[in-house]
Amino acid sequence: MPTTTSAMTVASAGAPFTRRALEVADPRPDEVLVRVEAVGMCHADLAVRAGEFPFPLPGVAGHEGAGIVEQVGSGVTTVRPGDRVVLTFDSCGRCRGCVSGVPSQCYEFVARNFTNGARPDGTPSLHDGDGVVHGNFFGQSSFATYALARERNTIPVPAIAADVPSSVLAPLGCGIQTGAGAVLNVLQPEASSTVAVFGAGVVGLSAVMAAALLPIEQLVVVDVLDSRLELARELGATTVVNSRTTDPIEAIKDATGGGAGHVVESSGVPAVLVQAIKSLRVGGAAAVVGVPPFGTTAPIDVADVVNDSKRVIGVVEGRSNPPTFLPDLVALTAAGRLPVEKLVTTFPLGDVERAAEAMKNGTATKPVLLPEKNT
Hints:
The chain contains twelve helices and 18 strands. The strands form three sheets. Strands 3, 5, 6, 9, 10, 17 and 18 form a seven-stranded mixed beta sheet that branches. It has a six-stranded parallel beta sheet with strand order 13-12-11-14-15-16, with helices on both faces. The chain has a five-stranded antiparallel beta sheet with strand order 4-1-2-7-8, with no helix packed on it. The chain has two domains: 199 residues, Quinone Oxidoreductase, Chain A, domain 1 (Alpha-Beta Complex), CATH 3.90.180; 139 residues, Rossmann fold (3-Layer(aba) Sandwich), CATH 3.40.50.720. The two termini are 17 Å apart. The protein has 375 residues and is α/β, with parallel strands linked by helices.
């Protein structure tokens, strides 16, 4: 009998999430069926609902799933039924990016994680009777009780994290690894350097937590919500700036003695990206992780970038190689060095709209949905 999943589905752009019982396809040789215990909510999920991302509808979003393996395909060797796992982005495994250990630069990244709405070969993974509902969002579509993923984007949870709840592990699959990876994998700030983070959402705060692990001299965080700035200070920020009342460029230059050596821009707001680049010192580097709607542009001062030898780097998923980077993040979380639990607020899966509103108004930094058992 096909597996039935209770999924929060978006019928069309702007429509609310609606619960529907769907059939999940049986795992193919390279696929894994996961019973979802927790799934983080990210701005990308809300962009799908709004029609801002090129994911076909009707469909099921959700891309920070964590849970228990229920079934595996005949060719799967890295996980087995009963294993705890974290789900992350999908990649082809064959292109230059994948074979060089940087699957976040997979040549098929957009198709496999956004635009297909189906398996890589175009066949559906979700059905509503005889009708097709688009799935495979980030290779999982985990706003549901069950998710079908591939072995490549199913990462076993190390035994060291046996006592860490899935609600804390789930955000590691996207938001946490994006922010932490931007610092640890891309910018790699040297000792006594300075780091500035624009945007104190979950990605920005993950960058803060990662930077706080390093022997840097200054860690500046910019946001418009005092509550988020207070949390940033608790997580290790040495200076916080509310950009509604203070010029962040001048504040960063004052705090760092001329500009930050490293910047993470996580807001996805074009005007903020401009500020982030201008706040760099000569020779500084900006990791850009915030994604506005596709086609958005920003008025960059090219002379400023060229004359001050600045580097602007687009970063997808923290330039992570999930089979190695995610276990490292899990270990840091289990050891209390990456306090992800301070970002998490849990909601029942059926309260997905309330969770979305809480994230939008800033009362929840990282909503995590908990599928109800036996539904």
